Amino acid sequence: MSKRSTVTLKGLAQELGLSPSTVSRVLNDAAGEDSRWASPETNRRILTLASELGYAKNPYAASLRTARSGLIGVVVPRLQDYVLATIYEGVDEAAAEHGYVAVVANSLDNPVSHEARVRKLMDRRIDGLILGDTPFDGSTLTAIEREDVPFVLVNRRSPGHPSVTCNDYLGGRLAGEHLAGLGVEKVFLLAGKDRMSTSIDRTAGFTEALAEHGIELPASHIATGGFDAEGGEEAMRRLLEASGVPEAIFAVNDFAAIGALGVLAERGLSAPEDVKLVGYNDTPLAGGVGLTTVRSPMHQIGRQGLELLVETMAGRPVESRQLDPELVIRTTA
After folding, report:
1. Which listed residue, of 14, 165, 253, 312, carries a Cα 20 to 30 Å from 83's Cα?
2. What is the pLDDT of residues 283-323, one digit of tens each?
3. Does the structure show a pLDDT above 70 at 33?
4. Among the CATH numbers 1.10.260, 1.10.150, 1.10.1660, 3.90.1720, which is that of 4-63?
5. Matching fold, domains 4-63 and 71-165+299-322
């Protein structure tokens, strides 16, 4: 058993030359090395090997449970974010229909917080995880894979892992084709966080659509930053100071777009008269300010994420899903 990810009760028992039932009883006995199920020497052998291979730290394997808990853990960056809250509502709704209760935790997009929240959820013996805070490189999934916990990603994708997302590449193309059709040439992109698939895919679709219409988007016209209004404001100020006023702006999140709109207003500029502006997701606030945006099926992403997790927990093969976006044209572009 050279790989921690392959540690099983049966494997431990075989390596120790003991029965699985003895290993199970010792690992689950609160008395630890004083377990009544085996001699002190055997207890120590079991606990030592389990610790070395990571088995004792696995709440799934260590509990050796046969009955499901009925709990689904959900980890998102910030539940106060409208997009994530709507996705969670979809998860919660579908979970109830399948007889589960969804328990949510915020990671603040911090890997340390993410690991702590996931551990707390697994300590509650959840049946599976839905993760909305995974970076594109999947770096936060290593520990979860080692624990062998069923999981599905939502909103953000990572290659090789089951996910339900909006087709963000297509969404970026819709924004690019729309602005290109308006005859603009100088375009800014508020690209969000560059380690997240939402930013990567929306940016790729947008820049490729512009290129097909002969519109160049130099690196100096692209700014990364947060997905919130504050991040949009900061990114917008940087671009304006470095490159002047553009003809159009695409922000990969509505809140970042609204932040940019505020900065434009500070400078006596308005949309669409001076600058065309397109956002992404179609949150209620977007409708309130007349923001042209790309609508993401947020609620359905949550529902289908839970349904995909149910399939995964049942041991059935699954494939990632991408749901189609829709361009919603209002007054800003």
Report:
1. 312
2. 999 999 999 999 999 999 999 999 999 999 998 899 999 99
3. no
4. 1.10.260
5. no
Per residue in 140-150, pLDDT tens? 998 888 777 89
pLDDT at 118 over 80: yes
Q: What's the CATH number of domain 168-295, 3.90.1280.10, 3.20.20.70, 3.40.190.10, 3.40.50.2300?
A: 3.40.50.2300
**Residue 66 pLDDT > 80:** no
Confidence label for 22 from pLDDT (cuts 50, 70 and 90): confident
